[in-house]
Write a structure and sequence with these properties.
This protein has about 750 residues and is α/β, with parallel strands linked by helices.
């Protein structure tokens, strides 16, 4: 068994014993000097107290300055400078409640780059503008209590000044916290208010009065040690000459080795354990530190390797489409920013190419989603195989892909697009059960100055080219020209597209109109259907222009979420009063979205006071039927009713009524118009009776006159909707009774 090394306590006990013996010898000499040194020590103590006070003031100032600079670096401060609309609310509820500033902060303010406060507040104790000499620390007095006023710039990552912050922090609490007084009795510190205030910080020390600490034993001991310093120094010098080599060998060198290892670990955490720490130490505590440090070093290396691997995996997951392996939309937008940074000052020809699979929804509906997924994989692999080296393929959503062709002329882009089309046409899709030929349409747009063509503009032009390429009489590849814009009849106009995109992603200018759905028996409004409109200046963008653009960019879930948030705000503000209700339209992608439950769970408190209906079109039920059924059942359990919308306009099937959780069936206006033909009336009556017998309630759309409403009521329709009862409006209509 290895001999255990003595502990550091044993060595220290030996040293202390020797030191006490020497001090006992020296104390006999020093007792004779006590009276002589008393006055001298008093003078020395006052001098030290002044130095101590100066250090304490400087320490308190540095701490408050550090807190002010930390406040200037706070992310929320930058956000307020960039968007000061809610500065008053933020100042009241967040400015002083965070841990950035100490509890004894009196006030804090934020200024813009011109030095003007973001918003004037009646309660603010700080000036409205940053003074010219903002780097001077100033004390403001409240009675005899001083507060330190400091300014600090707010900068971005490039070092540019975005604005300024100012803090007003009580100085005495910080002075007491950081002072650590040993000579001064902190409880006796008193500050005389100056005749003229405010004053610079450096004048503060002259206003402070204090008493020295009274400790007779310490005073006597210090006087004895001062008198005996020369004698003690000679004796300790001799001991040090003998003891120094031993201390160097026993303590200093091992500690230096450990220190060097810690520095190496901090600077190069992935390095292996150095050989200098392989030899054991002669002190038990240091040996334990060495072993622990080596073990920690090895564990840290293992953790770093694991983290590196996980980071690579997470980065790939965040920037790649898991189905096709192509880069995703996030990577698309990030790559565009990289291109702007690289080619900002050069004229480099760049082409944006959009790829879209023709009739892909029909492939999904006919052969199932597994076959559709295989088609997506093959096409992504095929296009990537045609693209040049280092050119990335992005999946923007659904069946839409995109790529940037760098240093590429329009002629070269057309050639690459033709090869992509030919390679796709030659791919074998029959092995997945797809018997029809699979083709793609390609829209191209070209630019050589990135700052003149932002990403939204390029995507719009590529969309217009794609729209042209999908026309029956056109080639499947199209390069954008200004003439194409006119042929789209305003559907893809630049301002319309940008307005719709901004409304969908940020909710700006998005408005909810409400159309009443009435009880045909009583004529009273039962609930309202929520319909979307976008107000762009004086122009009201209608659904006929909104939805084609949203579907082209696969933004249906984003639009639905913005609409849901707007309706929820209307419920919170009592715009939709208790006792009524609202019907929300959900797009097919939203019905099968994994997040749909989270989007709508906030409505749960309104289930008892309002009628809440979710309208789903038949097309949403045809695709991914199992997932749609699962989500709708969960929403139904929350308290929503489910309505099958536009029944009779598309792929009508009673199978969905039997399997899906449907409470209400809304007959499309095309079925309602069967009333105008005596022969076709029978079809309408028969359908209505079957659905009513199955336990569903009926809603008729497109009712414009009282006679139609009366006839529908006789057939068995419970509710009606149409211009007879009210047009969609921003305010809730109260329709007159139809009788």
């Amino acid at each position: 068994m290895a001999k255990k090394a003595p502990s550091i306590k044993a060595y220290l006990a030996l040293f202390i014993f020797a030191a006490l013996a020497m001090l006992g010898l020296l104390s006999i000499i020093t007792l004779q000097q006590i009276d002589h040194l008393r006055q001298e020590f008093q003078t020395t103590s006052l001098t030290q107290a002044d130095v101590e006070l100066s250090r304490a003031i400087n320490a308190a100032y540095r701490e408050i300055l550090d807190r002010t600079k930390a406040y200037a670096r706070w992310q929320e401060v930058r956000q307020q400078i960039q968007n000061p609309n809610f500065y008053a609310y933020w100042h009241k509820h967040r400015a002083l409640s965070s841990e950035v500033l100490p509890d004894y902060t009196q006030d804090a303010a934020i200024y813009n780059a011109k030095g003007k406060v973001l918003s004037k507040l009646d309660t603010s104790l700080l000036p409205a503008r940053v003074p010219e000499k903002s780097d001077t620390a100033t004390l403001i007095f409240d009675g005899n209590k001083p507060s330190l006023l400091l300014y600090a710039p707010v900068t971005n990552k490039e070092g540019s000044t975005l604005g300024y912050v100012a803090t007003l922090i009580r100085f005495l609490p910080e002075l007491f916290r950081t002072g650590g007084f040993s000579q001064i009795d902190a409880e006796t510190i008193h500050i005389e208010r100056p005749a003229a205030a405010p004053i610079p910080l450096h004048e503060l020390q002259g206003l402070i009065e204090f008493d020295l600490r009274t400790d007779p034993f310490s005073d006597t001991l210090l006087k004895i040690m001062t008198s005996a310093f020369v004698h003690f120094g000679l004796l300790m010098g001799l001991v040090t000459l003998l003891f120094y080599p031993f201390v160097i060998w026993l303590l200093s060198q091992p500690i230096q080795r450990v220190s060097r290892h810690i520095d190496l670990l901090r600077e190069n955490p992935g390095e292996s354990v150095p050989s200098s720490l392989s030899k054991p130490f002669q002190i038990a505590e240091l040996e334990k530190i060495r072993q622990s440090l080596n073990a920690y070093h090895m564990r840290l290396n293992d953790v770093n390797r694991s983290l590196d691997q996980k980071n690579r995996e997470l980065w790939k997951m965040a920037h790649h489409d898991p189905l096709t392996g192509a880069h995703n939309r996030r990577a698309f937008e990030k790559y565009w920013q990289e291109l702007n940074d690289i080619f900002a000052d050069s004229r480099t020809p760049i082409c944006l190419a959009l790829f879209d699979i023709n009739h892909f929804k029909a492939i999904n509906d006919s052969y199932g989603h597994q076959a559709g997924d295989q088609v997506l994989k093959v096409i992504a692999k095929t296009i990537q195989g045609v693209l040049r080296k280092n050119e990335r393929l992005f999946r923007l959503g659904g069946d839409e892909f995109a790529t940037f062709l760098i240093n590429c002329t329009p002629q070269t882009a057309l050639s690459i697009a033709e090869r992509c089309e030919q390679a796709t046409a030659q791919s074998n899709f029959q092995k997945f059960g797809v018997r029809e030929p699979v083709r793609i349409s390609i829209g191209l747009t070209h630019t050589d100055r990135l700052e003149n063509d932002p990403l939204q503009s390029l995507q719009w032009k590529a969309d217009v080219a794609m729209y042209s390429a999908k026309r029956p009489s056109s080639s499947s590849i199209a390069l954008f020209t200004p003439a194409m814009e006119k042929s789209t009849q305003g559907l893809f106009s630049s301002w319309t597209r940008l307005a719709v995109y901004e409304a969908v992603t940020s909710g700006k200018d998005l408005h909810i109109y409400y159309q009443p759905i009435v009880d045909l028996e009583s004529g009273q409004t039962h609930y309202y259907e929520a319909l979307v409109r976008i107000q762009h200046g004086d122009e009201l963008i209608m659904p006929s222009h909104i939805f084609p653009l949203v579907e082209a960019r696969r933004l249906e879930p984003d639009l639905d979420r913005s609409i849901i948030e707007a309706i929820f705000r209307d419920l919170e503000s009592n715009r939709i009063p208790p006792g009524s209700g609202v019907s929300i339209n959900l797009s097919p992608p939203s019905v099968v979205d994994e997040g749909i439950i989270d989007w709508l769970e906030d409505f749960q408190p309104y289930v008892r006071s309002h009628k809440l209906v979710l309208e789903v079109t038949e097309t949403a039920l045809i695709t991914q039927l199992h997932l749609a059924t699962k989500n709708l059942k969960r929403l139904r359990n929350i308290g929503f009713e489910i309505a099958l919308d536009d029944f009779g306009s598309g792929y009508s099937s009673f199978k969905y009524l039997a399997t899906m959780p449907v409470d209400i069936v809304k007959f499309d206006i095309s079925l309602v118009q069967l009333l105008n033909d005596k022969e076709q009336q029978r079809i309408l009556i028969y359908l209505a009776k079957m659905i009513i017998d199955a336990g569903h309630r009926l809603v008729a759309e497109g009712i414009e006159d009282k006679l139609t409403a009366k006839r529908l009521r006789r057939i068995g329709f419970k509710y009606g909707q149409g211009y007879l009862f009210g047009k969609p409006a921003p305010e809730l209509n109260k329709p007159a009774k139809t009788g």
